[in-house]
Write a structure and sequence with these properties.
Number of domains: 2
Helix content: 25-40%
Number of strands: 9
CATH class of the largest domain: Alpha Beta
CATH architecture of the largest domain: 3-Layer(aba) Sandwich
Strand content: 15-25%
CATH topology of the largest domain: Rossmann fold
Largest sheet: 6 strands, mixed
CATH superfamily of the largest domain: P-loop containing nucleotide triphosphate hydrolases
Shape: globular
Number of helices: 8
Structural class: alpha/beta
Low-confidence stretches: 224-246
Oligomer: single chain
Distance between the termini: 31 Å
Mean pLDDT: 84
Order of helices and strands: EEEHEEHHHEHEEEHHH
Length: 252
């Protein structure tokens, strides 16, 4: 029995200034499934997800989504004006009242209560990623779209973040489209992999994709074999920036 369909794209092509950015791409996103979109820099990953969210005009193809689909988006980066300082709590409160039960639940899930009073500009890379993920959850999403969520994190930080994403998927039964150009953890933390290099080179279960000639051609056989199905186990807690920590909520 298939999961509920959230969004389906068929034959998407996007051209700009005589260049093909995305060529004839099709994908299907379902509730409860994590789909990872991987590919080298410049492959069109961010362009494709912006089109899926209706932020970018497509030149060919079509996009169909379930009625009233709520999308929570975690951008690749956030540009903040240093002359307009704002605390973490203030930033998150731009979406909704910090007094709501939902706000408190999202903050606890992403373990950000202990940095509420910190200026956004002072956050480490890992702390900022958790805040951006919390902001995406405040929309009560049926679909989470995460653009390079582990960018700038070390190995331990990546492990913690991917584990959190999997937990949120299970809790919310939401679909997840996770964009990355890194192979670490991605293949072990996903249900389906789509390999993009302007066009979709290959897609399917991680084990199938990791053995596909196009995947090996893009990433190199040695690198792909070393990291594609890598899993991480440890008996202690790290922060998303790799440091040993005690968490804010102490609920695991």
């Amino acid at each position: 029995m298939s999961n509920a369909l959230l969004l389906e794209a068929s034959g998407l092509s996007i051209y700009r200034q005589g260049r093909t950015l995305v060529d004839n791409a099709s994908l299907r996103l379902e509730a409860g499934k994590v789909v990872s979109l991987i590919g080298p820099n410049g492959a069109g990953k961010t362009t494709l997800i912006r089109a899926l969210m209706g932020l970018l005009k497509i030149d060919k193809g079509q996009i169909e989504s379930s009625q009233g689909l709520q999308i929570g988006y975690m951008p690749q980066k956030l540009n903040l004006d240093a002359s307009l300082p704002i605390s973490v709590k203030g930033f998150l409160s731009l979406n909704q009242s910090s007094a709501s039960d939902h706000f408190q639940h999202c903050a606890a899930s992403c373990d950000v209560e202990c940095i509420f009073e910190r200026p956004m500009q002072s956050l480490s890379g890992g702390e900022l990623q958790r805040v951006l993920l919390c902001r995406a959850l405040l929309k009560k999403p049926q679909l989470l779209i995460l653009d390079e969520p582990a960018q700038g994190l070390d190995v331990n930080g990546q492990a913690e973040l991917y584990q959190l994403i999997t937990q949120l998927r299970d809790e919310l039964n939401c679909g997840v489209l996770m964009v990355s150009h890194d192979l670490h953890f991605v293949m072990a933390a996903t249900d389906e992999v789509i390999c993009l290099n302007q066009h979709i080179c290959c897609h399917g279960h991680p084990e199938k994709v990791s053995a596909h000639p196009e995947y090996l051609k893009l990433f190199g056989q040695n690198q792909a074999a070393n990291v594609a199905l890598y899993t991480h186990h440890h008996d202690h807690q790290h922060g998303v920036h790799g440091e040993l920590i005690e968490t804010c909520n102490h609920k695991h």
